[in-house]
Write a structure and sequence with these properties.
single chain, alpha/beta, 7-stranded mixed beta sheet, 14 strands
Length: 265
Amino acid sequence: MNSNDLKVALFPMNLIWDDKETNLTNLKTAIEKLHPQTDLLILPETFSTGFPVGKDKEQVRSLAERNTGDTIEFIKKLAKARHIGICGSFIADSGGSLYNRAFFIEPSGEEYFEDKHHLFTMAGENKIFSRGYERLAVRFRGWNLAVVICYDVRFPVWCRNVNNEYDALIIVANWPEVRIGAWNALLPARAIENEAYVCAVDCRGTDNKGFVYDGSSAVFDFKGKDISVSTDESPFVYATMSRERLEKFRSKFPAWADADPFKLL
């Protein structure tokens, strides 16, 4: 394996809403089929519970955990056992406030967390969760990775790759089929404009309001080309990201150097 490559697996999980135990069990079962050369496994947004549609804050609180709770401890054990990084998001409780919290767990147990910035007001997410103000950034196996959550991808300034600070943008989502056309258009756009890979994973299933999720998940290269591979035999979507190809393209076509300077307020 080329040391400049990063092998990623996306898992468009078939979520069972509000059933944490079943979702964790299904992940444990599925991961036994994961390709042994995988470096990074990417899970959907709120992978253990599903996105809390049609619930009030106190109902959602019953699904929330601290960073030291069972869900993250479970992920740590899987990451260590498989010697992979694992990222996604879960419903977190910190000091009584609730968050849609992105996580990145290394096989060593090193952990990184940040909270969703753009809360989906049309579903009342802003009435349940507090927003975060930092984008999750991780250095993993020689790659700079950034992680955003679902609705965040609609906002190019939040996703902006200033001075190539990241090599791949990871997007974890519960994005319903009714709006999947927007999802499919936004992903290659984020890759092209930021001259970076985009790894995006959606879930499957039907939520408490009857919205269907079709699991549309893919990896796009810096030109917006879908480089992911999936088969009927595997529950995972795979891709290999090449450091060499990325750096050659950024050198040959350095549009990033002409980007407008700005600061988020």
